[in-house]
Amino acid sequence: MKLVSVLHFPEFGGPHNQALRLSPALAHHGVESTIVLPAGPGADRLRASGLDVRIVPLGRVRAVPNPRTQLQTLGRFPLDMRALISLYRRERPDVVQLNGLMNPHAALAARALGISVVWQLLDTRPPMRLRRVMMPLVRRLADVVMPIGHGVARAHPGTEAFGERMVVFYAPVDTALFRPGTPSTLRAELGIAPDAPVVGVVGNVNPQKGHEHFATAAALVHQSFPEARFVIAGQIYANHPTHSEYHRRLVAQAESGGLRVGQDLVFLGARRDIPNVMAAFDILALASVPNSEGTPTVILEAMATGLPVVATAVGSVAEVVADGETGFVVPAEQPQIMADRLTTLLSDRERRTQMGTKGRERTEREFNLDRCVADHLRAYNLAIEHRRHGKHRATTHG
């Protein structure tokens, strides 16, 4: 089986990580994967890992109010369609996979050639009005829809109408790479004492991650645990005006709350050694805002590492974090509640250990790589079967 997976974002993120973990495992089941995306850090990292990457300068819908930006995306649309159709004709895929709701180019190009389409819904970032606009197009073009969790499915009206052709999945986790007891060099790198508590976040520095709420929670926790250290690992977009300004505001906010940036709160920037980073944490926190996440991979990676998780109730998070058992699920944009839960865990090492153990067990049982591979294989076969025998009849690849 030949798969072409189209990603519209150049920065390395959740869909890129999914491709990185899944492609080699799918290959053992006879699926040959080609990843199509714009040039950038995401493509560089995937190619360096040995994956088959094709660079196409795809436009994408941006969450910015500037009409010029959106007009530029619209103006690129015919170019993107021609590029994708040309690529499909060369690669002759059995299935095209879209990674996200808002960029339909890959599905329209696949439909023009009669190729099966699997459309993944990976987050809740688009406003509901846009989801309502886009979902009829998804229902028309997709043979199979794959929401990342039932919460994401419910957030996209019409998804459940796919019936058996809705294949719910969760991000793949390499439980051999992320595991308890892994030695870490991060504490020595940052000068953190072996017994100092560390609360960490893994997430690019942009507003949807809600880092400002984490910074507020950290300042509150620091009043009770002055020895605690707080770490944010994620890309800092120095050349992106909106995101760089967001970072500056975060630094100012943390300092005004009494945190010494670079000591009490450390911004690591982008890291490729996330297992090493995460192994230095005592707790993983994630303060994502509403209309943002699906099921963040880092939550499952933290659970696999044996860490308790304190995360906001967005997307499908509550499906993977068992509240009170493997961590705590807290309301979004309520840093006082997050601070209370973090304080509870920092005050009770035994409870942290128990939650971490249960999180590891749950990840091995429910969110392992083999299960994710099986979900994708089922989706691909359903899509091919639907295109062959359903209302979308295949035409020649050209």
Please describe what this structure looks like.
The protein is an alpha/beta fold. It has 15 helices and 12 strands. 45% of the residues lie in helices and 14% in strands. Strands 3-2-1-4-5-6 form a 6-stranded parallel beta sheet, with helices on both faces. Helix 8 (211-224) links the parallel strand 7 and strand 8. The chain is globular and about 60 Å long. 45% of the residues are buried. The model is unreliable at 392-398 (pLDDT under 50).
Outline of the structure:
The protein is of the alpha/beta class and 398 residues long.
Largest sheet: 6 strands, parallel
Cross-sheet strand order for the largest sheet: 3-2-1-4-5-6
What is the average of the pLDDT values?
Answer: 93
Q: Describe the global form.
A: globular
- What share of the residues lie within helices? 40-55%
| Cα distance spanning the termini | 18 Å
The count of strands amounts to 12
Low-confidence stretches: 392-398
Strand content: 5-15%
Query: By helix and strand content, what is the structural category?
Result: alpha/beta
| Backbone CA Rg | 21 Å
Number of helices: 15
| N-to-C series of helices and strands | EHEHEHEHEHEHHEHEHEHEHEHEHHH
